[in-house]
Amino acid sequence: RRARRTRRAAARAEGAKARAYTLRSPALASPLCLSAGGFSPPSVVLGREGEKNDVGVDCDVVSGRHVELKVERRSSRLVATDLGSTNGSAIRRAKGGGAFAALGGGDMAMEPGVAYELRDGDTLVLATRAMLKVSAAAAGAAEAASEASAPPAVKTAAPMFGFSKKKAGVPAEEEEAPASKPAFGLKPPQAAKAAEKKPEKRPSKPMFGFGKAAEEAAQEAAQGVGSDTTGEALAQAGALLGALGKGMADAGSKGAEALRRAQQEREAEREA
Fold first, then answer.
1. Locations of Low complexity compositional bias (predicted)?
2. Which of 118, 132, 142, 134 is nearest to 20 (CA)?
């Protein structure tokens, strides 16, 4: 009797210290954490995925609402209650002892509606197929372990001054240099062509038929083309200019002579 009392006292002390519990199973999408206080819920209902329950179990023979798990607030014990499932529930103790039934081959069968305590190392068996391993830890330790096992979330850098967001850890794309602004409204290629294009020289109009020759002579005089010395070029230009002046004088005298003849003819007509 004293030994039993000692074991019960030790179990109560262990339950008082271990306020958080974690259940792991391949049938669960992620480890299930329960605690009397903190962020974890104190109680949940487990059942077949797709049914009205809190946690889905990936097993076809599990009922829609199979079992309820709850952490008692005062004693911090984890208890399981079968909700009248079709294929039943059982507890596989970490150490042998107690009354055992034939369900699952040596597992302790759970009667519907009766709360059974789950201890560290026990296994909750649902419909003889889904195995949920129970582990107990201090308050907050189980939650920290589950968070540590989860993959770290990728954080994004906060936008600064309205600029676009960039993911942290991802090298930023090289920004392209802004294109140079066109000068005077021209696009860069057109501006380059305009700069390369030189003004064309327009030939001057000939004067009295001598302009072309005089211009060629002046150009030869200025550039020294077609003559040995600059003096010869100037002499040729002077001769051409002299010829131009003589031609103009001849044209003027001829014009005056034509006017005199016209006046004489008019006077002769009047006298007649």
1. 179-193
2. 142
Full-model pTM: 0.45
Give 76-104 pLDDT, tens digit per residue.
899 999 999 999 999 999 865 444 444 44
Strand partners, 79: 70, 117
Which residue is listed with tokens 């150490």? 95
Contacts of residue 203, defined as CB under 8 A and 6 or more positions apart, other chains included, come to 215
C-beta of residue 92 within 8 angstroms of C-beta of residue 19: no
List the beta strands (DSSP E) in the chain: 20-24, 32-35, 43-48, 55-57, 67-71, 78-82, 89-92, 108-109, 115-118, 123-126, 130-137
Q: Encoding tokens for residue 88?
A: 């039943």
Which residue in the block uniquely carries the two structure tokens 């968070």? 147
In sequence order, what are the residues at sequence separation of 6 or more whose Cβ sits closer than 8 angstroms to the Cβ of residue 87? 61, 62, 63, 126, 127, 128
**pLDDT per residue over 241-261, tens digit each?**
777 777 777 777 777 777 888
The secondary element (H helix, E strand) that includes residue 99 is none
Q: Which two tokens stand for residue 93?
A: 């103790």
In a 13 Å sphere around the CA of 265, the CA atoms on its Cβ side amount to 6
